[in-house]
Every structure is written in structure tokens, then in C-alpha cells.
Amino acid sequence: MGLSDDKELQLLLFPVFLGIYLMTLIWNLGLIILIRIDSHLHTPMYFFLSFLSFIDICYSSSISPRMLSDFLKDENTISFIACATQHFVASWMALTECCLLAAMAYDRYIAIGSPLQYSMIMAPGLCWKMVAAAYGSGFLSSLIQTVSSFHLDYCGPNIIHHFFCDIAQIIALSCSNPFIGQMILFLEAIIVGFGSLLFILLSYGFIASSILKISLLKHSAKAFSTCASHLAAVTLFYGTALSVYMHPSTSHSMKQNKVLSVFYVIFIPMLNPLIYSLRNKEIKEALKRVIKRATYLLQQE
Question: How far is CA 115 from each of CA 119, 193, 220, 246, rounded to the nearest angstrom?
């Protein structure tokens, strides 16, 4: 059904969301390239951040292009296979982001709690294993969820009151017993979603305990500032997702869900690179070095 039935409003929204999508691609891709080419950013924190940016690109790209094309159509339709594919990719990226945010919380805990052993504990091998585990868990969970949900019988109404293939509304359209699909969805939300959130909260509990042991106010403030960006990203991601899926569905709440979904599907992938860059001295310095190097090469030519 899209965001709105008003065609004039849709034409106004098209350039707005196109601009947001292009900024999402440019900022996240730019951050990935910057982290890759600047050796000063070759640390576990920025290693994880580059994969978070890649997730944001894939997550936004699984939904935004289809949504943008729907703005220009008189009737919005999507095939069964395309709907399943869109859900699979979006769910894979969302579940992977949960796991990756948990890995980043652990990284911050080691950096603050055991600074002398940090480079030894967070070795490149462990970082790659954590990323592989995050992507692997997200892939497997999304695959099970998609197969179980789209394997149901669909013979009744085929109207999705959303701007993307939201799994809760897809299952509700089934004319067969959706119990297994709903249980799988519930278990994955508990194990992956809330499990990752619990791990993040525990990590920050230990981080807070470690910071309290630091006697100097200046050092404790610096220690906390390294976590501020990650904490903001976690709050935005989980705050909006929980507000959408943790209350009963009604006709009024469906409209609210669309607005909130726009925020965590469209805006958060754009905001994440800004959250990590605007107040980050290391990224600002890396950007200055890259610009200086590029300027020097141009002058040499």
C-alpha cells in the first residue's frame, strides 16, 4: 500500500527519500573507503564499524529502491518471490546488525576494562570470527524465518498495509495455521534480538564498573566518550524497533508503525555514519590526511 494514498504527496516525498538514500550510500561507502585506506583506522573498533556501514548499505538498498519506484506508480504490486527476497535480505541485515552491535559492545568493554591486553585479546583473527559469526547467525536466522513464513498457504487477501514486506503482516495474510512461523519469529526475536541487547547491557554494566574505578575525571570522561557513539546507535536501533513491534496491532498503530518504520529502515542507516563521525577526532584527522594526500597528488600532476 506504500506510505500514502495521496499521489501528490508521493511525488513530493520521492525527491526527499531519493536524497536520503543517496546520502546513505555516499556516507556509508565513504566511511568504508576511509577506514580501508587510512592505516591509523586499522583497529578493531573501525573494523567493526566498516561492516556496520556495509550492513546499512545493504539494509537500505533492500527496501528504498522499491519504495522509490512505488512513489511513481499508480498501483503498487510486488511478486511473491520478490517479497520473500526483500524480507530475507532486510531480515538478514537487521539480525546481523543486532549481533554486530553486541560484538562492538564487547570490543569497547575490552578496550576500557583491559586496555593493556586489548591488542592481544582483540586480535585480527578473533575480529574476523566475530564478524563471520554475526553474518552467519543473521543469514541462518533469516533463512529459517523466510522459508517457514513464505511456505505457508496464501489464498485470501493480498494487501500489505506497509511500504515493504513486513513479516508480521505477511504471516497475518496466510490462510493456513501460522503457529510455527509465529513461534520461529518469536524465538529468533528473543534469542537474537533480546539476546544481543542483554549482552550489550551486560557489557555496558561492566564498562560502567570499570569507568568508576578510574580515579581521574579526565580519564573516565575520555573512556566514556569512546562508547558514546555506539551507545547512541544502539539506542536508536533498538528504541525504534521495540516501539514498532512491542505493542498490539490496530488500524491506528499501523499508521504509527509506518512512521516509526521509516525512521529505523530509512533514517538510521543514514544517521549511523554521522553518529560515528561528527564527534570522532580520529575519523576527522583521517579525512584531513586523505584530503591532504589527494591535494598533494593533484599538485604533483
Answer: 8, 29, 13, 38
State pLDDT tens for residues 110-134. 988 888 899 999 999 999 999 999 9
Our CA angle for 250, 253, 255, nearest 5°, is 120
The domains of the chain are located at: 7-300
Residue 280 region by backbone torsions, left for phi larger than 0, else alpha for psi between -120 and 50, else beta: beta
pLDDT tens, residue by residue, 14-50:
999 999 999 999 999 999 999 999 988 999 999 999 9
CATH number of the domain at 7-300, out of 1.20.1070.10, 1.10.10.10, 2.60.40.10, 1.25.40.10? 1.20.1070.10
The amino acid present at 224, given as its one-letter code, is F
Judged by DSSP in three states, 151 sits in coil
Dist. CA 17–CA 150, nearest whole Å? 29
- Can you state the percent helix, strand and coil of the chain, rounding each to 5? 80, 0, 20
User: Exposed, middle or buried by CB within 10 Å (0-12, 13-18, 19+), for 248?
Assistant: exposed
Q: Are 168 and 87 in contact (CB under 8 A)?
A: no
| Rounded-to-integer distance, Cα 267 and Cα 112, Å | 30
